[in-house]
Amino acid sequence: MPIPAERKMDVLVALCKRRGFVYPDSEIYGGFANAWDFGPYGVELKNNIRDAWWDRFVRGREDVVGVDTPIIQHSRIWEASGHVQNFSDPLVECKACHKRFRADHLLEASQAEPGYDKERPANLRDIRCPECGGGLTDVMHFNLMLKTFIGPKEEASNLAYLRPETAAGMFTAWANIRDTMRKRLPFGIAQVGRAFRNEITPGNFIFRLREFEQMEIEYFVKPEDAPRAFDMWLDAYKAWVRDVLRLSDANVQYREIPDAERAFYSARSIDPEYLFPFGMKELGGLANRTDYDLSRHQECSKQDLRILDPETNERVLPYVIEPTWGLTRSVLAVLCEHLDEDRAPTADKEDDEARLVLRLPPRLAPVKAAILPLTKKDGLPEIARELATNLHRRGIVAEEDESGSIGKRYRRQDEIGTPWCFTIDHQTTEDKTVTVRDRDGMSQSRVPLADVPAWVMEKLSV
Ligand code: ATP
Prior knowledge:
The structure is a single chain. By secondary structure, the chain is α+β, with helices and mostly antiparallel strands. It has three domains: 44-81 and 147-335, Bira Bifunctional Protein, Domain 2 (BirA Bifunctional Protein, domain 2, 2-Layer Sandwich), CATH 3.30.930.10; 88-143, Rubrerythrin, domain 2; 367-461, 3-Layer(aba) Sandwich (Rossmann fold), CATH 3.40.50. The protein has 14 helices and 24 strands. The chain has helices at residues 5-18, 40-59, 76-80, 83-86, 103-111, 167-172, 174-180, 226-243, 292-301, 327-338, 380-393, 406-416, 426-431, 452-460, and strands at 22-24, 36-38, 64-66, 88-93, 100-102, 140-143, 147-149, 159-161, 187-196, 211-221, 252-256, 268-276, 279-282, 284-288, 307-309, 314-316, 319-326, 339-345, 352-358, 369-373, 398-400, 420-424, 433-438, 444-448. Helix 2 crosses helix 10. The relative contact order is 0.11. The model has no long low-confidence stretch (mean pLDDT 94).
């Protein structure tokens, strides 16, 4: 039973706090607006997405290599990339209540209103403050890069930026990778890491943050191969969203960005979007960035960034196809997609009750197996301990829980998305079998205790 969109974020935010996925940051100091801590289960979920991505796109391919570059790099990089001049959002402020908004978001919202006339495109001059109805200022441009200073003096020559995206490091490392990794075009460089943006309107839980994580690939190709590589990455993107994040087709769209909205250097862009409870929003991006980045860095660094094409013996400046995945946003999409509510039997079996369940793909679930001794005596906790040790030894995250009624323990595991619960009961001491309960269907069956690790490994491999 899906949770209605208008209720879903409240239910999710409460569950994330109650169950240790995401907590408000700096809470003991009264909180720090729009900053969140990933708790023990949240960080496992995030790392599982990151690891699945790295395994699939870096370790699983011969044409992509990884890199890890600093958050603070040479300031000239951001001049070359155009971020110092252009990385800004259009900001308007209400003259009455002084709330600030992104002008493009207000325009988008007004276009979504009933009765919107496509023949008369919305004009910012006609839009009033959505909070108090006051008049808005003219558009101001606001650079999103967070600044800091290197060294003891806060002066212009020491100014440095926290990277607003991970991509730049792949371009600055390009020459070294070209010279050391013996790769031929096409090949890509991948990076996962934090990026920082001084967002005007952060919010919607972890959707828009000032500090977030991206997973990006810069895929270098001969210019004539760029359209084909773009299609290849679009297919790879779709397969990832469908098979790993398991977002349903009905909730995902791949939006072709029209010429007028696209960056001037981009030959083609598609934004993968997801239907969050607060609307269809960007999840990531895919762009054919032509040779814009390498030619800008070539010009500004005065280094030759071309690569030798052994077939023609000519040096070429590659085009770049850039698929970007928002890691933090992927966590939110996965939580929204798989949070569900149904009914479960209660202990007395007379009645049933509402059950919240995170139907996470097993590979992404923070805990794979819960081990639940029915009572705290008769040797059951010892059997549970031994089973948990056996699972841990094989790298399977398992959690023992012996407190509270079995029903309450199941409910807790359902809410953290544990796909399987193994219950150790008195029959276990007699015939060495345990009950396995499936999270989604709540069906139960018995498996030999000794087979549990192999059983879990097999289920995780599909
Ligand atoms: P938006 O239009 O939502 O501001 P953008 O088009 O500026 O996003 P990109 O620069 O294309 O975003 O960044 C690539 C990806 O990085 C986004 O699709 C998103 O997944 C992630 N991302 C960007 N900004 C944020 C943020 N403030 N918080 C969380 N994730 C972000």
